[in-house]
Design a protein that fits this description.
- Chain B: Belongs to the heme-copper respiratory oxidase family.
- Chain B: Keywords: Electron transport, Heme, Iron, Membrane, Metal-binding, Respiratory chain, Transmembrane, Transmembrane helix, Transport.
- Chain B: Its main location: membrane.
- The structure holds two protein chains of two kinds.
- Chain A is an all-alpha fold.
- Chain A contains six helices and no strands.
- Chain A has one domain: Four Helix Bundle (Hemerythrin (Met), subunit A) (Up-down Bundle), CATH 1.20.120.
- In chain A, helix 3 packs antiparallel against helix 4, helix 3 packs antiparallel against helix 6 and helix 5 runs antiparallel to helix 6.
- Chain B has a single domain, classed as Cytochrome C Oxidase, Chain A (Up-down Bundle), CATH 1.20.210.
- Chain B is globular, with a radius of gyration of 24 Å.
- The N terminus of chain B is likely disordered.
- The chains are: A mainly alpha, B mainly alpha.
- The complex binds protoporphyrin IX containing FE (HEM) and copper (II) ion (CU).
- The site of protoporphyrin IX containing FE has 23 residues of chain B, from helix 9, helix 11, helix 12 and helix 14.
Chain lengths: 219, 559
């Protein structure tokens, strides 16, 4: 990763590194290592979902037909577009176009929030359709099929965990946008944008896996 | 250099905020600043290591007290000393605290943190703030678990098997589970920091095959931290959801499967036993050459063995589930693979003994611990093979044989390596020497006490005494009393070092930079090291373990 940077754009060396190149290498390796652990976290969850699907195919399909396919699909598009705006922010940061970068970052945060709003609406619809089996006090639509609860509950665990990552991502992004709007940011911390971008793409990637595994293959 | 250096050029070259150096004590990392804030907000890897050292020592004491309660209960066969409930809580607290809050962070978070940058010639770990964060994450997780202990404890055992932990246990399971989940993140952050540091921060000339084995084993450990911990996090999240909301994954009534939890649990926890043991192997690989004044035998093989262990260890988890309804084919494969794990372990043992052979041996305290380690690790490892044998496992699974097996490795191995390393690097950490006579006495006491405590448990297990019961048939009493008596000797052996080491902090002799004539960059700098580790860039030696005795070995190899 050695993208060309415009004049006046760069990274300030921290005291314990010898060179800026070393520092950037460490940051890149660090974020990739972190993303691998995150991937394993979700992989274990998806594995459990697949095991449930293999052991109880009918119940899983019945439950999956209650998921809101179109909301999921729209959300997939929303996140992919947000990855595009994030990539634009990274490119602008390299060029030193600070205002454009800040706008692209705000757009990314807005799209992420849109995802959460749609997801929240989806949960609300699930609630009204009695598709929240973990709520002990509320009747469950598919009570006749106990194994379906299992799939639905896993759907909540997986999407909530993803939502939590997205929420963290949006908060970090807004905090960083605020700092990035100050003068001189790009000459000192351009690398932050690159590193953060990888995390954002990762959140997107997890959804791109979750959507088929939960919504599509079981239809 | 700027041209302004006139009269006071000496002053101008000094770092603006570095404190004035005094003749008696040049500013080292311990004395650079002394406010509480400078400790709790430090990003110096050495200070963070000390924070970890203090915290895990506290947990060791908690865990040891719980162990004492267990051994007290087992002095009589009829369970008259305490209620069964208390007994169950005692062994659970013991296991949870010792595994999750002592053994897993023990060597990496303390010695690894302190020494890896020194050994590779760096100023700090790659991410100093993340390093501090990991300690706060650790303490947060610990807080949750301690809350559960204080509120009344839990009785699930350290393995948290469903459905006991999800449906039947009445204790404060949730806070404990949340605590253990959180602690996992501190392991991940530590592992990540080490991997990146070892890749990117090595001094010029420090190539991979000049790294001390200590660094290699920590690299292997860090890979396990990164690749196994997330899976236990997911397993624990599902367990928390199951207990809190009955989501059904581990409950057969909803089509779930409790054995699935065991798979996820052991997929992490078998590799985790190598998280506990690999760093200790690294410590022994430093101590043995130093006290034999001889190059480590077969350096490359020891390094490969570390990576070999870290890889094979991911494929043997099923040996914990031989009699839990696993298919015969799976059991066969897991059994064979478990035998394979023994190979790299044995490589290391052979290399240490070959290093001792014809060395100029000095039996100082660290070396006594190292020798104890080698012997006990062999016994622990070999009994692992018994357990991995399908037919024998039927007989000794879930008996005291298993308890003895893993204590030989985790206490006989890791704890001895921890104490050996603590004595070896104590002069480096603190700048003080401890009392050698007391050191040797304690090392011998621990070895003796350990064997008296745990050897009888092999026999008990072989005779069929199951683990985790508060009562047992009267004919087992003699061996149990012996075991409890050994535990008191062991306790004395642990208390002495705590006293004389702390004493040495104020009254010990000042330590020279390299009290043992040991090789390695950490001995090139002052004891204790300055905040940025080296005053001038360290010179990497030609070969690792550049000890006086080298030639014979190479000759012998060619013969
Ligand atoms: C030489 C390699 C090893 C082999 C072949 C081996 C084999 C085994 C087997 C087959 C069991 C299951 C016994 C049963 O429950 O029936 C077991 C249990 C155990 N081993 Fe090992 N082991 C080895 C090394 C280690 C190491 C290095 C550690 C720790 C640092 C360790 C810690 C444990 C623990 C904690 C348990 C018991 C877990 C529990 O049920 O609470 N083992 N070992
Ligand atoms: Cu195992």
């Amino acid at each position: 990763m050695s993208a060309r940077l415009a004049d006046g754009v760069g990274t300030e060396r921290a005291h314990h590194f010898e060179t800026v190149a070393q520092q950037r290498y460490a940051a890149t390796l660090g974020i990739w290592a972190w993303l691998i652990t995150e991937l394993l976290l979700f992989a274990a969850l998806f594995l459990v979902a697949l095991i449930v699907r293999i052991q109880h195919p009918e119940a899983t399909q019945e439950a999956a037909r209650h998921l809101k396919f179109w909301i999921g699909a729209v959300n997939t598009v929303v996140l992919i577009v947000s990855s595009l705006t994030m990539s634009m922010a990274i490119e602008f940061s390299r060029l030193g176009w600070q205002r454009a970068m800040v706008r692209a970052m705000l757009a990314t945060a807005a799209l992420g929030s849109l995802f959460l709003v749609l997801k929240g609406y989806e949960y609300y619809a699930d609630y009204t359709e009695h598709m929240m089996p973990f709520l002990g006090s509320r009747p469950y639509e598919l009570a006749a099929s106990p194994a379906s609860r299992l799939f639905v509950n896993l759907y909540y665990v997986a999407t909530l965990l993803h939502g939590l990552h997205l929420l963290t991502g949006i908060s970090l992004l807004l905090g960083m946008t605020w700092m990035a709007s100050k003068a001189g940011f790009l000459s000192r911390h351009q690398n932050w944008i690159e590193i953060y971008g990888l995390y954002w793409h990762f959140i997107d990637l997890i959804w791109i896996m979750a959507f088929p595994i939960l919504y599509v293959v079981n239809r | 250099m700027s041209a302004s250096g006139t009269v006071d050029s000496g002053l101008a070259n000094r770092e603006p905020h570095a404190p004035e150096a005094t003749l008696d004590r040049p500013a080292d990392y311990l004395h650079a600043e002394s406010t509480l804030r400078s400790w709790f907000l430090t990003t110096d890897h050495k200070r963070i290591a000390i924070l970890y050292l203090a915290s895990i020592t506290a947990f060791f004491i908690v865990g040891a007290v719980a162990a004492g309660v267990v051994r007290l209960a087992l002095v009589v066969p009829n369970g008259a000393v305490m209620t069964n409930d208390t007994y169950n809580k005692a062994f659970t607290i013991h296991g949870v605290v010792m595994v999750w809050f002592f053994l897993i962070p023990s060597i990496p978070a303390t010695f690894g943190n302190f020494l890896i940058p020194l050994m590779i010639g760096a100023k700090d770990l790659a991410f100093p703030k993340l390093n501090l964060t990991s300690w706060y994450v650790f303490m947060t997780g610990a807080l949750f678990t301690m809350v559960s202990v204080v509120l009344g404890g839990i009785d699930t055992g350290w393995t948290f098997y469903a459905p006991l932990s999800t449906a039947f246990s009445n204790g404060w399971v949730l806070p404990a589970l949340i605590g253990v989940t959180i602690v996992g993140f501190s392991s991940i952050l530590t592992g990540l920091n080490f991997v990146v540091t070892i890749h990117t921060m090595r001094a010029t000339g420090m190539t991979w095959f000049k790294l001390p084995i200590f660094v290699w084993t920590h690299y292997a450990t860090s890979l396990i931290f990164l690749l196994a911990t997330p899976v236990i996090t997911t397993a624990l999240i599902l367990l928390i959801m199951e207990r809190a909301f009955h989501i059904g994954v581990f409950d057969p009534a909803f089509g779930g499967d409790p054995v699935l939890f065991q798979h996820l649990f052991w997929f992490y926890s078998h590799p985790a036993v190598y998280i506990m043991v690999l760093p200790g192997m690294g410590v022994i690989s430093e101590i043995v050459p130093a006290f034999a004044q001889k190059k480590l035998f077969g350096y490359r093989f020891v390094a490969y063995a570390a990576i070999g262990l870290a890889s094979v260890t991911f494929f043997v988890w099923g040996h914990h589930m031989f009699i839990n309804g696993q298919s015969d084919l799976a059991s066969l494969a897991f059994s064979a693979l478990s035998f394979a794990v023994a190979v790299p372990s044995a490589v290391k043992v052979y290399n240490w003994t070959a290093t001792i052979h014809k060395g100029k041996l000095r039996l100082d305290t660290p070396m006594l611990y190292a020798m104890g380690y080698i012997g006990l690790f062999v016994l622990g490892g070999l009994t692992g093979l018994y357990l991995a044998t399908l037919a024998i496992n039927q007989h000794i699974h879930a008996t005291y044989f298993v308890v003895a097996h893993f204590h030989y490795i985790m206490v006989g191995g890791t704890v001895l390596a921890f104490l050996g390393g603590l004595h070896f690097w104590w002069p480096k950490f603190t700048g003080r020497m401890y009392n050698e006579a007391w050191g040797r006495i304690s090392a011998l006491l621990i070895f003796l006490g350990f064997n008296v405590t745990f050897f009888p448990q092999f026999i008990l297990g072989y005779l069929g005494m199951p683990r985790r019961y508060a009562t047992y048939p009267p004919e087992f009493q003699l061996l149990n009393v012996l075991s409890s008596a050994g535990a008191t000797i062991l306790a004395a052996g642990y208390i002495f070092p705590m006293l004389y080491l702390v004493y040495s902090l104020w009254f010990g002799k000042k330590a020279p930079a390299n009290p043992w004539d040991a090789k390695g960059l950490e001995w090139e700098t002052a004891s204790p090291p300055p905040t940025l580790n080296f005053t001038s860039p360290p010179v990497v030696p030609r070969v690792p373990y550049d000890y006086p005795i080298q030639e014979q070995e190479t000759k012998a190899q060619h013969r």
